[in-house]
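Appendix B, record 7
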Amino acid sequence: MKSTCIKLVGKTRHGKNRIHQHGEKWIVESVGKFQGQSAFSLRSTEKTEGPKHNKGFDGRWVLMKDDPNFWVKCDADAMQRICDTTNIPKDWLTR
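Structure tokens (predicted):
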């Protein structure tokens, strides 16, 4: 899969803190299942995790539908390239 960049928006305090810590732009590493639900496996675009002189990328799963901590914003064409968009809320997609 070609790298696709999406924007995360924090819903909860936890989500907002992760955005503050790692940024709002994330790279979709893969699409799969997390806790039995369709989800994106994401990687931060910047190295923000770890000790000062040995930073690494942060990774996380974000559910495609009803994630408790994040909303996903993405170009509609990009979203169609990476997954089936039939169950994705239309307000996630931008043109």
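Remarks on this record: Strands lie at 4-10, 25-34, 37-49, 56-63, 70-75, 93-94. The helical segments are 13-22, 76-82.
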